[in-house]
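step: validate -> pass
step: tokenize input -> pass
step: predict -> running
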Amino acid sequence: MLTALARRPKRRVAAHFRHVRPQALVGIGQTAFVAHFSVAAEFLTTPSSIAATTMGDLYIDRWRGIGFHKPSSWEWVSVLATRRAQAGIQLNSEDMSLAMNESILSEDTHAPFVVAANLKEAVPTPGALSAEVQSLAAMLLMSFEGTLEGVSGDESVESLEEYLDRDLAVLADNYLGFQLLSEPKPIELSQCEAIEYNARYHLEHSGISSPIVVRDRTIYVLHNQPIYSIRMVDYPDNDPPVTYDFDSIIGSIRLL
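step: predict -> pass
step: emit ->
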């Protein structure tokens, strides 16, 4: 249920982010993309009003050039329903809560465009007060976050590292008990520059009676110009715990 926030303050780049930027990391070619997902090349080039689609466990987004497989036991979740549930998240700042909710419901930036969840192993949400948050499930959400040049009022940044550094400052200021479980580390995802971190925080929501502890594994990937976030959340501190190893999903992601 976590989503990044709009209109972040500018912040100095942390020293541990400074490293030599890889060159020419722009994603895999069309031949490799088609071969990996076993789809016809014509599917990527034939005009269609539907840019993204799911085919069984496969998600293909022709416009963004993204594809991945969800586990067969997982389900695709309504993006609209997810955004409505996210709109109930309560942050430390009331003004930031209002700004985030407006962004989620009215803009494409910082809001998920595809969601998958392990609903078969979901458990009841402790203290649920509304139908939208009655269960806890391991979940993956992909969102368009912006560009290095900035969108939706964001300031421009010089690198993916600086973008993440700024985001972490906002998350730490606005989510109760936010802490990094592992330092952000540069990785390569489908031949694109990316950064991964793990965090923990208490989620406060208008639809639950008390905060829930969330574990958040997030990857930010720079895919040509756009920056996408891949957020994977579970609830190991819940009773009973809700956990998932997301490595198989990450390993299936390809960027065209």
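step: describe -> DSSP finds six helices and 14 strands in the chain.
step: cleanup -> pass
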